[in-house]
Amino acid sequence: MKKRSLLLLLLALVMVVSGCTVKTKDEAAPKPSEPAGEQQPVNPSAVTIELLGMSSAESDMNIIRDQLTKNGFNVKLNMQPDFGSFKAQEDAGNYDVSLSSWTTVTGNPDYAVRSLFKTGGDYSKLSDEEIDKLIDQAATQTPEEAKETYNQLEQRLVTDKAYIAPLYISLKSQAFNKDILDENSVRLSKSRSLPWEAVDFKDPSKRDKEPLILSQSISELTSLDPIKGNDGSINIINTNMNVRLINLTDDDKITSEGSLSYNHSIAEGNSEYYFILRDDINFAQVKDKLAADSGERVGADDVIFSLNRAKDKNSVPDHRTYTLHEHIKDVEVVKDLGSLDAVKVSGSDETVKQSLEKGLDAPISSLVTDKNQASTKDGKYQVIKLTTTEPFPQVLNYLAHQSAGIVSKKQVESINTYEVAKFDVNKDIPYGDQNTVTEGDKYNNTLYASGPYILSYKNDYEAIFYKNPGYMKGTENEPKINQVRVRFIKDADSTLSALRSGEIHLYYGVPETKYDVVKSDSKLKLQTIESNAVSYLLFNTKNRDVAKNEDLRKAVLYSINQDEILSYYGGNKIKAFSTVSPLVKTGNELKADPAKVKEHLAKYQEASK
Predict the structure, then answer these.
(1) Do 552 and 490 fall within a single domain?
(2) pTM
(3) What SS3 class is residue 154?
(4) Given a cut of 50, is residue 194 above it in pLDDT?
(5) Domain of 96?
(6) Residue 522 within a domain
(7) How many other CB atoms sit within 10 Å of the CB of residue 218?
(8) Tally of domains within the chain
(9) Is 88 inside any structural domain?
């Protein structure tokens, strides 16, 4: 018994000592033996900071804890097992700093700040008039003019007010089994999610016989209504289930390729945008758990309905993406063909009609308002005109976002019969509720998908998707593989093991710490590019001392040493200053400064007396 007590004492001493230094890469890596959850402070006389995060980010939490501890803080870890419980803790305000991340999936800097930091933004916990002004100012400027405005915005957000503490920019990565998948069919885009319709087997004969198997860590889907969610649980899913008016290329350029539009055009003044619609997409529905062609064409009425509800905060309860579309003023179907000849393209002598006709099999002979009368081969088209509240070319980037996915007007209105103001979560079942696609007593799949795939059903293990039989048939954008299975695997080690064993074919979002393992496996291929994903610490702005005291926030800010974080990840992370860092190079940089930490902590403690 004495030997055992001595051993326990020595272990305890080792743990205390290690809490005062930054861990090595191996030490900071997640260990199954370390329980997730809250950790109590060990030094009652020091300032305590509660750090909220998910177990999947345990390495980052360990590094941040050790940096704060070294600078005189006690750190209480509030580590949650999944996104749902993390969000519940964040919404309840049970944190001082929350380990957060944001990916600008639209490729434009306005998206990197508007939802996050503008007063009333979908995800904003801030209310700062100066920040609001700078966000709106930058949105209307040229990229060169906006650079200085975003510089000022960063100074206010980080240096002056310390509303966030930046950590790093991640690489975007994926690994796949090149013995199974055709290397040339697997794309990695800077902002856009993986387009499933492009992926193909190395052996094309497998397309109808075997499923493409992917993975995802989050099994609880926020909503399959594209405007009601904007998070890692549904972004890729909704992007592949709902077609949009516009897409992004792999390097973040605006394109009509693979979208609902053959072409798009910006009119003089940069406030009017025109889209000429395809006539070869039908909504898919689910019958007997298989995909079926609903017989309903995707058309102008669905576009108008979808974008009007996207911009209207009150169109659905718990609308999460309306601020992305607040610059939309009107959406209408063009009836007068002559009006297209009367308007010039921005910065050109070309007419909008000429611009829209480029590459079409038949020129525009007439415009129709009934989507069922549209006929590309006969030159009968539908054209959408979208007008913005002010000159705002960045609206196109937002139209490429999954929240601008086109839904069926007829189907959504038939499901959402409740009054929004009186919505009862215990009684009313909205369109896109994940319970309606989850196996069990509540299963009643009412989805209509305008995109290449439709979700048939899900359980705790996986989600099953089928190819939309009415999606661009006979074109290069018709989905190659009939069935897609998304396996729910929570942690990186298990996901990588599943990839190596052949249980899954592609791992989207491989952690930098796993790159070497992928490279060592001859049957796997790793793809990486610099991403638009930024990790940062978000301070509580309501019910903690960090909400009231700027000095306390700045003490945390200057404790963060990005060089140490980059070293841990073997140089596979990039320094960040804000969420616009991947898109606008302002030159701002956060430098750890223990002297400033000490100064601001002293001011905070003096003010707290």
Answers:
(1) no
(2) 0.80
(3) helix
(4) yes
(5) 19-170+532-608
(6) no
(7) 17
(8) 2
(9) yes
